[in-house]
Write a structure and sequence with these properties.
five-stranded mixed beta sheet, alpha/beta, signal
Amino acid sequence: MPKRRWIVALAVAVLLGAGAGTVAVAAPSVAAVACPWCYGLTGLGGGVYAERDDDSYRTMADAAGQRVERFYGGRQAHARVLICTTDACYRRIGGGGEKGRALRNRALLLSPAGATETIAAHEFAHLELHERLGDARGKVPHWFDEGLAVVVSDDPRYLRSGSDRCLVPYDEALTVTRVDWAAAAAGGTDRGYLLAGCVVSRWVAAHDVHKMVADLRDGMPFEDALS
């Protein structure tokens, strides 16, 4: 079985255009996406695979996808969803300490703690933005990508209801745009998401994300597309 997994990983990595170094790092996740059943996951339909044969996971994933569809007015990213109900499973498919993980714009991995509608929608939001940006996805800084995912997923941990969704003073939230994302999220805290969600929620209320995406794809710098 391990040999088969590596063969699958290599074949998929070649299709993704990955180099040898990427294969070594991403092989478990890439292989699991290509062959979920090789990792003990059961197909629930609609591209959803779970460690436990439970239709509620498909329902959850569908509801999460609908949040993204409502925000964008449709979906362009269609990816496999791999859901683990044990930590051992999540480690086996290449997950780490995070609750969920978007694998480029092709797949979504969810840990036992991340198998919720909100977290799935957050990761779906990453996939959707990356799919719409195409080769321009590298122009978007991490803080904006994460903040937009917070807004799209409508995460109540980081946003309040109402017209002003910020849970922190806006001037304080702006600091997230001036520091490295790793520093904003240092120590495994959620503070970076809190700050980024505030800033991006204000931006979304006054701007058109579709126009920003089009401008970035046309070659405009991020700072100009954001204005």
